[in-house]
Design brief:
By secondary structure, the chain is mainly alpha-helical. It has 6 helices and 4 strands; from the N terminus they run ββααααββαα. The strands form 2 sheets. Strands 1-2 form a two-stranded antiparallel sheet. Helix 1 runs antiparallel to helix 5 and helix 5 crosses helix 6. About 10% of the residues are buried. The N terminus is likely disordered.
């Protein structure tokens, strides 16, 4: 028997009624990713599983594309992201780390590797060399070809819709991460009257 066969209903907090008045449920307020689900919960566990399955299928098919891009350009994605950040005007390891989403130490290591490959120069300031620019141009060209495949599968209307949806999800996850950080930084205090 599958979850769908069992007829799983939406997960809900049962109501408590005292003297004809519905009482608020006793529960902990969600933080982090749970806070993203503020207005609408998935009505069926089967829906959640189908969504996760679809995401996993896309991720599984995207992984070989990422590996192919890495092989074609001759560098791993973290190095390519670091090189792109420097090309976008980031001049310190901390600025690169902020754009790429890594630690300053990881950015320093990536910058040192790129310098060893001759793709960036760190003195007198952090800049991309002509070899680095050539690699970025090659990566841009390959990325456009991959995106052409995706938009070719979806068509222009659905592709634009997907972009909007992905930005909405990213914004929601980003705000959830901020909520989680704030919650961890400022512990909840109980107010007594």
């Amino acid at each position: 028997m599958t979850i769908e066969d069992a007829g799983t209903k939406s997960l809900a907090v049962p109501e408590r009624v005292t003297n004809g008045v519905v009482q608020a449920p006793d529960r902990v307020q969600p933080t982090g990713l749970a806070a993203v689900q503020t207005e609408q919960l998935i009505s069926d566990v089967g829906d959640a599983l189908r969504l996760l399955d679809a995401v996993e299928r896309v991720r599984g098919h995207a992984h070989p594309l990422v590996l192919g891009l890495q092989d074609a350009v001759g560098m791993k994605m973290p190095a390519a992201l670091t090189l792109s950040a420097i090309a976008n005007g980031r001049t310190t390891a901390a600025e690169v780390a902020d754009q790429v989403g890594t630690t300053t130490g990881e950015a320093e290591l990536a910058i040192a590797e790129l310098e060893g490959l001759g793709m960036v120069r760190t003195s007198p300031r952090l800049v991309v060399t002509s070899l680095g620019q050539a690699r970025l141009s090659q990566l841009d060209g390959l990325t456009v070809r991959v995106l052409d495949v995706v938009t070719g599968i979806l068509g222009p209307t659905d592709a634009a819709h997907l972009v909007r949806l992905l930005h909405t999800v990213a914004d929601g996850l980003e705000s959830a991460a901020v909520t989680e950080t704030v919650t961890q930084s400022f512990p909840q205090t109980a107010l007594h009257n």
